[in-house]
Amino acid sequence: MPKIAIRIAYEGTNFHGWQRQEPPDKPPYRTIQGELDKALADLFQLRIVTSGASRTDSGVHADAQVAAFTVETKIPITRIPAALNTRLPGDMRVLKAWLPIEDFDPVRDAVEKGYRYEVSHGDHLRVRPIFDRRTVYFSPHHMDSEPMKLAAALFVGKHDFRAFAHSAHGRECTVRTIFSCEVHALNTDRIVIDISGDGFLYNMVRIIAGTITEIGRGRMESSAIQAALQSGDRQLAGPTLPPEGLRLKWIRYPQEKSQEPL
User: Rounded distance, CA 101 to CA 83, Å?
Assistant: First the structure.
């Protein structure tokens, strides 16, 4: 049975994350996987369970999540996105579909993921977001981007990120490799933190962003990052920032695995 891969964008505000959640004696929670599987079942008239590359948390957004499923169909692959989009809610959209190799696994085969955390900071009356308030984190405290840039660079490399993960991360190994971590001031009151790596622990990006923003406020020193990495002590890292500022920007695969049209 052929495998189909898709890229999906969504605004995560009104979702309980990516993963399907069906608690006993309660209606299923609204999740991205749940809505996608429901649309696929309506399109192909059979039960389909998708596999997603990144299990984004409640309230987290995505520009290019990747999912895969298997199905026999005569629908042309190029028409599947439009067919699904007519069945999906307005805060989700399938961007493209293609045929990867048969054993393509969107989780296992991913070699790099990129996230962005966006912050609006400064005077409450002047810069607090209105139209993009669901996709940007607002802080009333001014932040200096220069020490934030220096702090971000300290995360690059292979480290044990125990101190930068939720206690319920559920992973035996907490070592991850960060390929890049950069801070960019888009203007005087808007900052983005772009980070890419081979994988991320539960809440890892939001805690890294919280640490960098605390340094930008002058409430922490960059030396705290090295201390947290070396000790694994969560108390030495910054706070977990809210989910609305976080966005999954992209996921990369070896071309021989995904065979995604360029």
Answer: 23
